[in-house]
């Protein structure tokens, strides 16, 4: 059973990092949010405050609960401040060498009892852990977007991750109100591997001229009973993040044709049409 006096750290104040920090703080844990610049932290804390305000206005939480969550959140631009923390979750951009460098630094800062997890959706946990001395305490904790609303968290065991590490991390995932799903360190883990055909085949249909974006999304919702169509979901996740996951999985399986990324998706990313976060993706977003 996880102790609420334990402290959780999050590296990266972007969409996923801020969302994970919010979840931990709402569950009653003292939470430290890190990024390399204060402006990034302020933006992340702003997203959290906006989400909590909306929850209060809808009657989901009280004003007192809202303030308690904000009071549990602290921020820093120094990785050294994570010393003594129980669990640190890295949610930096999907750049392997960046993640490996962060883990190398955290491994030197934190005692061997600290669990260090990556929120990567596409890279090997074992490859990230290879930059550390204490590979036994490195694992994956893959949250889904938006973390505050999505219940599932994949708990990924690397080649040298101990069972004890996995057990403790699983207990912490349950303590923050999420549903853990254990997975081996294989390309795409469980969800991203299953989801590739959902995205890729939709993009192929679009490329073949078989149907429009709107038609595919409508059919998947009305006939398939999905809450969101594939193009809506790619826009929500971020086309850059989704494309990077597809590309990583494609190379991990030695260019298996079934997993080949779509040129349409690549052009979306190159054009900066990343989805909701940029105001334009497969759909255009705005006040109306």
- CATH class category label of the largest domain: Alpha Beta
Over all CA atoms, what is the radius of gyration?
A: 19 Å
Class computed from helices, strands and strand pairing: alpha/beta
| Low-confidence regions | none
Order of helices and strands: EHEHHEEHEHEEHEHHHHH
Looking at the structure, the CATH topology of the largest domain is: Rossmann fold
Shape from CA axes? globular
How many helix segments? 11
Count structural domains: 2
What's the CATH architecture of the largest domain?
3-Layer(aba) Sandwich
Residue-averaged pLDDT: 95
The CATH homologous superfamily of the largest domain: NAD(P)-binding Rossmann-like Domain
Strand content: 5-15%
């Amino acid at each position: 059973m996880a102790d609420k006096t334990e402290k959780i750290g999050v590296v990266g104040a972007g969409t996923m990092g801020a969302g994970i920090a919010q979840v931990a703080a709402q569950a009653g844990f003292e939470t430290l949010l890190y990024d390399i610049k204060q402006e990034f932290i302020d933006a992340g804390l702003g997203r959290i405050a906006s989400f909590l305000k909306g929850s209060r206005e809808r009657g989901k939480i009280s004003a007192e609960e809202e303030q308690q969550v904000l009071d549990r959140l602290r921020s820093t631009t120094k990785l050294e401040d994570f010393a003594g923390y129980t669990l640190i979750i890295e949610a930096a951009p999907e750049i392997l060498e960046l993640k490996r460098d962060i883990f190398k630094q955290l491994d030197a800062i934190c005692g061997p009892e600290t669990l260090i997890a990556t929120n990567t959706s596409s890279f090997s946990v074992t490859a990230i852990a290879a930059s550390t001395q204490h590979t036994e305490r490195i694992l994956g904790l893959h949250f889904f977007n938006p973390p505050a609303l999505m219940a599932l968290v994949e708990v990924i065991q690397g080649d040298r991750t101990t069972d004890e590490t996995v057990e403790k991390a699983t207990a912490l995932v349950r303590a923050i109100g999420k549903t853990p799903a254990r997975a081996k360190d294989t390309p795409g883990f469980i969800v991203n591997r299953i989801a590739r055909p959902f995205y890729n085949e939709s993009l192929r249909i679009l490329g073949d001229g078989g149907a429009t974006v709107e038609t595919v999304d409508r059919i998947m919702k009305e006939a398939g009973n999905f809450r969101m169509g594939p193009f809506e979901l790619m826009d929500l996740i971020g086309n850059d993040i989704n494309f990077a996951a597809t590309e990583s999985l494609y190379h991990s399986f030695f260019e298996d044709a079934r997993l080949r990324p779509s040129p349409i998706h690549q052009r979306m990313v190159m054009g900066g049409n990343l989805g909701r976060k940029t105001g334009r993706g497969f759909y255009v977003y705005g006040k109306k």
